[in-house]
């Protein structure tokens, strides 16, 4: 069962154009971070408070070669995100950070 906690929030995503609207949000297993996907952009956010940590924009050459982003899944230790793209590939993004610097 899902219980709401607080009011819905609107994220100010760093979008390059209006065509890049976010369509997929995936939380990590510990609910510390969440990933926001647009067609060629991956953004990683810290949950509380909602703070943008990093944004990765896929280059146009690889975006045309592999296709647009479709879905994301976190590794259980939150050290990597696997992103599936439209032409049946997976893009693995490794994440290196220090939790002490986020607290």
UniProtKB/TrEMBL annotation:
GO terms for biological process: intracellular protein transport; retrograde transport, endosome to Golgi. It comes from Phyllostomus discolor (pale spear-nosed bat). This is RIC1-like protein, RAB6A GEF complex partner 1. It comes from the Eukaryota. The lineage of its organism: Eukaryota, Metazoa, Chordata, Craniata, Vertebrata. One of its GO terms (cellular component) is cytosol. InterPro entries: Ric1.
